[in-house]
Write a structure and sequence with these properties.
This protein is mostly helical and 265 residues long. It contains 13 helices and no strands. α2 crosses α3 (50-60) and α9 crosses α10. Bound molecules: iron/sulfur cluster.
């Protein structure tokens, strides 16, 4: 059952895994609202480090304002999007649409949206710019609003930790709002850095530990705090089998192939 102090404690536990060697918990140091959106789009289904590479390529192509991005030729934008990973056509279409909607609905006034009251800004992002709630909340949170943005991965972690009884796969929107309300209540007030850290750390955990199909509970920093492995003890056996298969594959590739002994003539 969530308690007032639970989220900060969980965040500190996850931080021990990811905030090492000077790495920060937050996902990006970008704060410009337009570029936060391009960052999000390039990160959807991106391969490892693909999001960073593609976003750098977009900057080099001078696509840092909506007008500039719309001036990039389709072949060039496709090659930028390719650096993120597959689905480059879908990504570049979404980038054009995002830039075009901003140009069409608010142009240079886009930045001013983020000083408006949260409900007003969120409605504009969701309705006028056709961005989903997680996308809209990400822009709001990274530009300083006291909003805890979630995504599918964070929601999965939260659900397994017992933060909602609503199954995200059955009703994503309801589960999202339920978890968001509790996360915001458990977050220190007026501490945007905490929100960015918590969001980034739980996103990373949902990417490589609390995976959709077989969560890596035995290797999770939240193992002792999480009710999921107690309810699903089969994950330990399944994970041990997966680890053993992985070790066997690694050993097979590491050792030289065995040649048949030479037959004396
Ligand atoms: S213990 Fe397992 S289910 Fe719980 S957060 Fe960690 S990986 Fe996810």
């Amino acid at each position: 059952m969530p308690t007032a102090q639970r989220l900060p404690k969980l965040v500190e536990l996850v931080a021990k895994k990811y905030e090492v060697d000077g790495k920060k918990g937050e996902l990006t140091d970008i704060r410009d609202p337009f570029l936060l959106g391009t960052w999000m789009i390039l990160g959807e289904h991106a391969k490892k480090n693909g999001q960073i590479r593609a976003h750098e390529a977009l900057r080099r192509a001078k696509g840092i304002t909506p007008g500039q991005l719309l001036d990039i030729l389709p072949e060039k934008l496709n090659s930028v999007c390719q650096q993120a990973g597959p689905y480059e056509d879908a990504r570049s279409k979404k980038l054009y649409q995002y830039a075009d909607d901003i140009e069409d609905k608010c142009g240079k006034e886009f930045g001013k949206l983020f000083i408006k009251p949260i409900p007003e800004a969120r409605t504009f992002l969701e309705i006028d710019l056709r961005l989903g709630r997680p996308f809209a909340d990400f822009l709001l949170m990274y530009t300083g609003a006291p909003v805890f943005a979630l995504d599918g991965k964070i929601l999965r972690v939260a659900s397994r930790l017992g933060y909602t009884k609503i199954k995200p796969e059955k009703d994503f929107d309801k589960a999202y709002k339920d978890v968001q309300k509790t996360f915001e209540a458990e977050s220190p007030k007026k501490d945007n850095d905490f929100l960015l850290r918590a969001h980034g750390l739980l996103h990373r955990l949902g990417t490589d530990v609390c995976t959709a199909v077989l969560p890596h509970c035995p290797h999770c920093p939240l193992l002792k705090e999480c009710p999921y492995p107690k309810k699903h003890p089969e994950v330990f056996e399944a994970q041990a089998a997966a680890d053993a298969a992985k070790a066997e594959r690694a050993a097979r590739y590491a050792s030289p192939p065995q040649l048949p002994p030479k037959v004396a003539k």
